[in-house]
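Reviewer comment 2.1 asked that we show a complete input and output for one of the modelled complexes. We chose the 2-acetamido-2-deoxy-beta-D-glucopyranose case, as it is the one discussed in the main text.
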Amino acid sequence: MEGIKFCFLFFIFFGEMVSMMEAHIAHYDEFWLKQAEAAKNAAQSEYHPRPVEVINQLNHEVRLSVKGRNSTRRPLNKYNGPCTATNPIDQCWRCDRDWAKNRQKLADCARGFGRNATGGKGGKIYVVTESTDEDMVNPKPGTLRHAVIQPEPLWIIFEHDMTIKLSQELIMTGDKTIDGRGAQVHIAGGAGLTLQFVKNIIIHSIKVHDIKSASGGMIRDSTSHFGMRTQSDGDGISLLGATNVWIDHVSMWNCQDGLIDLVECCTAVTISNCHFTHHNDVLLFGASDTYTQDELMQVTIVFTHFGKGLVQRMPRMRFGFAHILNNDYTHWLMYPIDGSSHPTILCQGNRFVAPADRNAKEVTKRTESPESEWKKWVWKSDGDLLSNGAFFIPSGDPGNQFPTTEEIISPQPGSSVSSLTKFAGYLNCVENSPC
Ligand SMILES: *[C@@H]1O[C@H](CO)[C@@H](O)[C@H](O)[C@H]1NC(C)=O
Ligand SMILES: *[C@@H]1O[C@H](CO)[C@@H](O)[C@H](O)[C@H]1NC(C)=O
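Response of the prediction step:
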């Protein structure tokens, strides 16, 4: 009995130690303990018990949007003049020439597992006027760092084009939208964005690149608290225990660690319309094979272009569930889809164009697991367009390809992907004109 108890305690302790190392919090004070606890509860309550409902809704909308675009009759979603939005997320807002007056309309446009993300909806507009990032403890009003630590919902926009070189990781509070439309906003050359134990964030239409590890130190994380941080990893956007997050139309390249990392039970996340290039380890969903709570992870990747100069991990996933729908994988050097610890991966209607290298034609890779083990994991390819010799090795009991008895709607096929992802990445929106 004592032995079991000891084992159990040890396990908890070990788990917590891993957390602390990954969280870059030098000291878990009362503030962070509370945040971490709230994040755990949020992940549990945001976990969708019927993922098929979310998957089918999105597939249905994509198919309707393509059909609507092709029909000679006026489609239901209005597009006037030159607007060429090609997928249901974009059609939700891009054709409005008054988008700059109706910025918060975007908050109704999330789809997939992150569809409840509303960011700073209902809050004030905060205009970032300065690109500097000097004081980590008392950030200057008008800077991005000052905007993201405020306690209330905020819709953050930029007065003019700017490159923000973050001196240390940018620690965001919840209920925020970072909306780069109307300006060229680069977050580059310094530290990256950190979404730690927070809820409800939208990041839209910015470029994040050349992010480097930063030394850490005293950093303010909210108006009521600051604390000591250890060295950051150099990820572009790092999500840790974050829920209801939507990353849309973000261009990212060449960061020191990952482009986007989801660790410690992030869930209800959508990555859409992004454009990723020139990077090795692209997306990491789950960092540890012992962190079983990552079973709660539910992520949608949709309308994203995995482009030039990418190597591997699009994503690399542990535990959890990923719906990978209608993305364009045009470049990889090793393989795009990788996992361990029995993640569930549903690839639908993507295009996978294999590189010339004869040893890199396989789309899938199972890391450090014998076939007897991985053949039980549910990895499914449905409607994917596999070209230039690309092949996908599915797994899972063929009689039960997916952990549900409900039917999954077939996707818009991979042949539509070049149109669906045509505007992937940062958007150059001009006021008084459809974007
Ligand atoms: C749309 O119309 C074009 C031209 O008629 C046709 O080639 C294409 O297959 C149609 N696409 C869909 C998705 O129906
Ligand atoms: C979104 O919110 C609704 C209403 O609270 C909830 O039923 C649903 O599970 C949430 N998550 C998703 C992915 O829809």
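Residues 1-15 have pLDDT under 50 and may be disordered. We note this here for comparison with the apo prediction described in Section 3.2.
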